[in-house]
Description:
CATH topology: Uracil-DNA Glycosylase, subunit E
Mean pLDDT: 96
Distance between the termini: 36 Å
Radius of gyration: 17 Å
Enzyme class: hydrolase
Number of domains: 1
Oligomer: single chain
Shape: globular
Structural class: alpha/beta
Main location: cytoplasm
CATH superfamily: Uracil-DNA glycosylase-like domain
EC number: 3.2.2.27
CATH class: Alpha Beta
Domain Uracil-DNA glycosylase-like: 50-211
Order of helices and strands: HHEHEHHEEHEHEHH
InterPro entries: UDG_fam1, Ura-DNA_Glyclase_AS, Uracil-DNA_glycosylase-like, Uracil-DNA_glycosylase-like_sf
Low-confidence stretches: none
Largest sheet: 4 strands, parallel
Number of strands: 6
Strand content: 5-15%
Amino acid sequence: xxxxxxxxxxxxxxxxxxxxxxxxxxxxxxxxxxxxxxxxxxxxxxxxxxxxxxxxxxxxxxxxxxxxxxxxxxxxxxxxxxxxxxxxxxxxxxxxxxxxxxxxxxxxxxxxxxxxxxxxxxxxxxxxxxxxxxxxxxxxxxxxxxxxxxxxxxxxxxxxxxxxxxxxxxxxxxxxxxxxxxxxxxxxxxxxxxxxxxxxxxxxxxxxxxxxxxxxxxxxx
Length: 221
């Protein structure tokens, strides 16, 4: 089966695409997309990989589920389509950027500009039904994206992993901390951020300091 994903990832992921769980996942997703409205759009399901080729990966940010509101999700975790109101978590991400690096609050919540610089914006589950949070969980996506995290850990060196919130922090067990830089904090959602677990983590400046120290060059957040 041909999966429409950036060619740089295919040699590493072909064995996943051939496994039974992935075949069942594909059947499930095809059925869901023909039966009703799902997000992101079909051609954007693998956008995280398309905008960030394997050789470019410098930072990995892990989300859980795509946004389930109408026309919000664009295949990149925490990101929304141009012109869409910023969800609360994204607002808090941009506020932390302001505090950390003095970056003016952006008008667009589309994070393609990050992905094109080597930030893999990976949701654990890559699709969702409209207005039904978590509706595509436990169908195989998590198995696939765990394999992606292990792949990056095993095949690359000196990548920054940003793990925000309890769900993402559990992914640390998939990462070799001896050769990568793992940053953890609370989730940027209002519930966590308002309790003091998000603001002030300085993940963006810390990531850039590390990347510069290993000769990779910083991200223009």
